[in-house]
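just leaving the lab so this will be short. what follows is a protein written twice so to speak, once as letters and once as structure tokens for the fold. can you read through it and tell me how you think this chain folds. thanks a lot i owe you, the record is right below.

___
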Amino acid sequence: MHLLLLALLLLPLPALAGELHLTLTGCPAGANLRLALHDTPALFASDNSGERGVRRLTTVSTGTTSLSLASLPPGRYALSSYCDLNGDGRLGTNFVGMPTEPYGFSRNARSRFGRPDFADAAFSVGDEPMRMAIDLK
């Protein structure tokens, strides 16, 4: 009996997957909302997640958009998002590099110049569904 219990304890556990439910405001109807989910500070700082990051494009139908990202491995993540008003696939900026299109980060993290630190935008995903609201400015 003890051997059977020990054998069951040694079996690998199934991988847990988390779910993130987002509500984003500040992107007008008809625009493209672009999201990127990053799992490391380096990828978040560069916004170059390539194949490792989760990217999503959604066309906004109202000023508030709700969506879900499912099957996320447990861990710490930071999310960046922007509203692509002109449809060129990148965040528009003016001549000094200030964004001209609405943008935001997880936990509504802000910075005076550039992106906020990963630690300021980071959140943990576990096996329980998580809800987050982001206001694009």
Q: What stands out?
A: The chain has one domain: 15-135. Residues 1-14 have pLDDT under 50 and may be disordered.
